[in-house]
Automatic annotation (TrEMBL):
One of its GO terms (molecular function) is UDP-3-O-[(3R)-3-hydroxyacyl]-glucosamine N-acyltransferase activity. Homotrimer. It comes from the Bacteria. Transmembrane segments: none annotated. It holds the Pfam family LpxD. The active site is at residue 241. Belongs to the transferase hexapeptide repeat family. LpxD subfamily. Pathway: Bacterial outer membrane biogenesis; LPS lipid A biosynthesis. Keywords: Acyltransferase, Lipid A biosynthesis, Lipid biosynthesis, Lipid metabolism, Repeat, Transferase. It catalyses: a UDP-3-O-[(3R)-3-hydroxyacyl]-alpha-D-glucosamine + a (3R)-hydroxyacyl-[ACP] = a UDP-2-N,3-O-bis[(3R)-3-hydroxyacyl]-alpha-D-glucosamine + holo-[ACP] + H(+). Gene3D superfamilies: Hexapeptide repeat proteins, MurE/MurF, N-terminal domain. This is UDP-3-O-acylglucosamine N-acyltransferase.
Amino acid sequence: MKFTAAQIAEILEGEIEGNPEAEVSELAKIEEGSEGSLTFLSNPKYTSYLYTTGASITIVNKDFEVEQPVNTTLIKVKDAYKAFSTLLEYYNQIKLNKSGIEQPSYISDSVKHEEGLYLGAFAYIGENVKLGKNVKVYPNAYIGDNVTIGNDVTIFAGVKIYSETIIGNNCVIHSGAIVGADGFGFSPDEKGEYSKVPQIGNVIIEDNVDVGAATTIDRATLGSTIIRKGVKLDNQIQIAHNVEIGENTAIAAQTGIAGSTKIGKNCLIGGQVGIVGHLSIGDRVKIQAQSGIGRNVKDDEILQGSPAFGYNDFNKSFIHFKNLPKIVNNIYQLEKKLGENG
């Protein structure tokens, strides 16, 4: 699909310097731009590429002043980075704007759905499912019985959504994610053998949540596992039964959160963090990558280490750890001198 500079300027409310009929059909980095591509300049260290880029159109900040001739058409906007992000989102919406029901696929007669449904080949939608407007279900996805999904939700290929799950508006569930599988509930007897504890709760995902590829969110034993509004989950995260994650918290890949832990709002959790069960993590907490959390955490704490402790204390301790052989040797020499003098 092609767009002219005039069309793009209208979308971004920008000003054109150059050819308003210049056409683009792809996006590119400024240093890799070629004819027919659109790029942007926001970081001053890339300014030199503006004068050599082959891109047909370049988005720049309004206050940018050209110091030598350019071959690219400029679109001047208030914030070039945000404007380019807006175009990326616009482009993505067009690219993913599928509709209709492909065959072979299965959709139960009891399903209720609004306009704009896309159901890819080999997808399955079970009994009593409710789907909002503009829901996209890509091939090989599975949606179990009694699931409710809001408006403008995208469920990519291979996603599995178990029964009774509730998903809000404007959510994205990436390929291979599993939502609503049984929590890890087993009870040992006197022989050490395990009996399954039925997991009869569900998962609730509120509005504007992104769930990364191959991430798993377990259903609650009783009640709900809850992912609040605006949460962003990276790939390959494990969220156990009855966990609750507060609004606008972001969690990086390979983090594991054990059962019944509550995480507050606006937290940032790095990759490969492990959090034990039944804890309370406050608001605005920051946890560095590969940390192990085994205690309750207050609001605004910054943690690192395993077991994790204060970030500043960790850095101080790490300096001492690196110098440990030297410190031990100094102690040995001091003891030797004391012994000689004694």
